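Hey all, sorry for the wall of text incoming. These are the two entities for the joint prediction.
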Amino acid sequence: MPVNPYLTFRVATLEDVPTILALLADDSTSGSQHGEYGEAHRAAFEAIDADPGNELIVAELDGEVVGTMQLTYIPGISRGGALRMQIEAVRIASGLRGGGLGGQMLRWAVERGRTRGCALVQLTTNKARKDAHRFYDSLGFVASHEGYKLALS
Amino acid sequence: MPVNPYLTFRVATLEDVPTILALLADDSTSGSQHGEYGEAHRAAFEAIDADPGNELIVAELDGEVVGTMQLTYIPGISRGGALRMQIEAVRIASGLRGGGLGGQMLRWAVERGRTRGCALVQLTTNKARKDAHRFYDSLGFVASHEGYKLALS
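and here's what came out:
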């Protein structure tokens, strides 16, 4: 699988949040849901940043943020008391999709989960995202579960 | 929908963990995955109990634990900086299934999420659990997503 040696990953800072929000908005499936940058996004960033169980990650290429994802580490009684990693809000800048950056970002996430002792990595993706399904299939993920959502607001 | 006035809910203690594990094991889809009660389960309980973003819940009927679920509160940048509740490891004692206790437990969870300010409740359930799909459909959940898993161990 292709590896871009100039792609780097780091934990996001508050200054990255407008760019992360722009990446989330640049999406035909859910792009309109995320709102204009404001106090609620800053508060969410502070909550993530203060929580050792959550990491907001950005991918950088030539000093520019080109990707993002959020990692959540969830302890549980099931599967032998296993820690699981959950990945949410995965995006690569639209002009750079299909070039392997997403695979590199996901493989980096899986390795980070392994290093932290996770026994399982999980994520959900909208059923309309057929390209994403092929992408996660190619990375060895198994679509074994139905992903249910209930909006409260 | 039926309501059993004797069904109560509370945060689990360490003493509940063997019973929770027995509920998880009493399941034809994943029952064999959870292991014999031991140090890893106790450590997982301590991690959950110490984390304000996680709650391990038990349902009691006449002083007996008859159900369990884990609630995780995940802050995020998406959806306007929304907090989401995730529900994992939902079980009702096998002899009591189909009587409405699970619906009562899930509605309680949704209300707890609403009280904590969650904009979304989410969960995944194995595609083999057809009864569970009808159950979540009946509670208003929408199976909009594919649930992907990658086992690391």
